[in-house]
Every structure is written in structure tokens, then in C-alpha cells.
Amino acid sequence: MEIYKIRRIRTLIVKIRIFVLVKLGKRLKTMNSENAFDVTVMHNLKGLYHCNDRVKLLIKPLTAIEKVNKNSKVLIIGPRNEHDLYLMASEGIKMSNITGLDLITYSSRIKIGDMHEMEFADDTFDVVVFGWTLSYSSQPEKAIQEIVRVTKSGGLVAVGVEYTNLSKEDSESLLGYSIQEHEKLQDRINSTKQIINLFGSNGGKVYFDHDAPLKRSHTSKEKIQNVSNVAAIVEVIK
Ligand SMILES: C[S@@+](CC[C@H](N)C(=O)[O-])C[C@H]1O[C@@H](n2cnc3c(N)ncnc32)[C@H](O)[C@@H]1O
Q1: Mean pLDDT of 141-163
Q2: Atom 24 (ligand 1): residue with closest C-alpha?
Q3: How confident is the model at residue 175 (pLDDT cuts 50, 70, 90)?
Q4: What are the Cα distances from residue 209, in Å, to 22, 109, 126, 195?
């Protein structure tokens, strides 16, 4: 849908629908995951109205690949609100073929569920968009193996995470709390090599490898506007 290309209209639709469905319709639902962190849902609820364009780093290269087309069945994991879904639709994918999955939902377009244990059948999706959500997992390998299960052989998985060089102490001083519990997760995924390795023998061709080329990180004192991102698009082979 071309109309979703216009940022002002897209974000207005997202915000009006959250207001109507959450405030008036009381449709907000949340769930916890034993593989998430204690603050995951609380932290993301604070940003429910936030519309971030960073997922374009996954969606633009994905939709340039010729095996992706308007009929591709797409799963978007961790959209938080409908914004990622509208961006995907703005690149020509049919809205009826796009499904969101999150621990938070207010919308029939976003199913409530845990990415480590999804209710979809094996080999359901042609494309999975997994943007800025892997860092909320204490079991990144389990999350990727579950994504592999629901993706068709030859399907594509696009993964994005924020680049950081902050220590645990720096992150806590920036936010006032730590998003990740470092005792549950030793190594934060911070490079395309780490992402690709998570696929193990199910990782095929790498169509896109964007390893935070400028290595810009937030600092312990402030969040910067143009933080770098790590992104990879990996083919699933089974
Ligand atoms: C930071 S937001 C990302 C929003 C958007 N994709 C973006 O790039 O701006 C991460 C989302 O992942 C969701 N999430 C975290 N752990 C999850 C899990 N185990 N299963 C499903 N969703 C999860 C959170 O609820 C949140 O909505």
C-alpha cells in the first residue's frame, strides 16, 4: 500500500489505532516468556506508541530480493505495534499475508506469543523479519532454531540488532536499569558473524551482511541519534 510510504500518515494510523484499541477498546494483552528478561514487557510497553523506521534496514534489501513478492507469507517478530507491518506493506507485500507476533498486542494483526515457542506449523513462512528483538532473548540459539522451524526451506530470515560497545555498567547508567540480565546471557549478539552462526547448519546463502560499518554506539551518558545497527539476511536451508 503506497499510502504507508508517507511517514506522517503511517505513524498517525499506528497511533490512532493504539489509542482506539488500547484506551477505548481495552484490547491490550501481554504475556511473559521464561526466555525473556524481567524488564522486557515493562520496557517495551513504555514505547508502545513509538514508531521507528530502522526496520527499513531489513525490509528494503529483503524486498529487493527476487524471490520475495507480494504473495510471500511474512512473519514479523517483535513489532511492538503495527508500524513494522505497515512498512512491510508499503513495499508491496499484501497486508493479509503479514502476521506479527509479540509478547504485547492490542491488534488482530499481531498474535500474542513467545518467539521461543510459536504456535505456527513447521514451514509456514517465506520470510521472517526479526528486528531489534533478538537482544531480548536469554536463549538466542533457541529463538533462531524456532524461527528456522516455522520458515520454509529456501525462505529468508532478516535479523537486526543495535550495535553497542557499552559495558553492563554503562547500559545501566544510561537507562537506570539493565534490559538484559547478564547472568542469564553472557554474550550479547553484536555482529553479523554471531547472527549467522546462530543458524548453524540451517544457514544458507547470506544475502545481506551489514556489520555496523560505522560502529557508532550510545554512550553511558546519552543516546545518540544515529546509532549503528547490525543486520543480516540469511537463507534457511533444511
Ligand atoms: C525493541 S522492540 C522492537 C520494535 C520494532 N521491531 C523496532 O525495530 O523498532 C522489541 C519487541 O520484541 C518483543 N519481544 C521481546 N521478547 C519477545 C519474545 N520472547 N517473544 C515475542 N516478542 C518478544 C517486545 O515485546 C517488543 O515489542
Answers
A1: 98
A2: 78
A3: confident
A4: 38, 29, 19, 10
Tell me which residue has its CA closest to atom 14 in ligand 1: 78
Check pocket membership of 190 for ligand 1, CB cut-off 6 A. Answer: no
By alpha-carbon position, which residue is closest to atom 5 of ligand 1?
Answer: 79
- The number of the ligand 1 atom at minimal distance from the alpha carbon of 116 is 19
Phi-psi region of 77 (alpha: psi -120 to 50; beta: other; left: phi over 0): beta
| Chain segment 211-228, per-residue pLDDT in tens | 999 999 998 888 999 999
Segment 88-117 shows an average pLDDT of: 98
Looking at domain 2-236, its CATH superfamily turns out to be: Vaccinia Virus protein VP39 (3.40.50.150)
User: To 5 degrees, how large is the angle CA 119–CA 158–CA 133?
Assistant: 65
Indicate the range of 47-51, 83-87, 117-121, 176-180 predicted with least confidence: 176-180
The per-residue DSSP string of the chain comes to -GGGGSHHHHHHHHHHHHIIIIIIT---EE---TTS-TTHHHHHHHTTT---GGGHHHHHHHHHSTT--TT--EEEE--SSTHHHHHHHHTT--GGGEEEEESEESSTTEEE-BTTB--SPTT-EEEEEEES-GGG-S-HHHHHHHHHHHEEEEEEEEEEEE-----HHHHHHHHSS-SS-TTT-SS---SHHHHHHHTGGGEEEEEEEEE-TT-----SS---TT--EEEEEEEE--
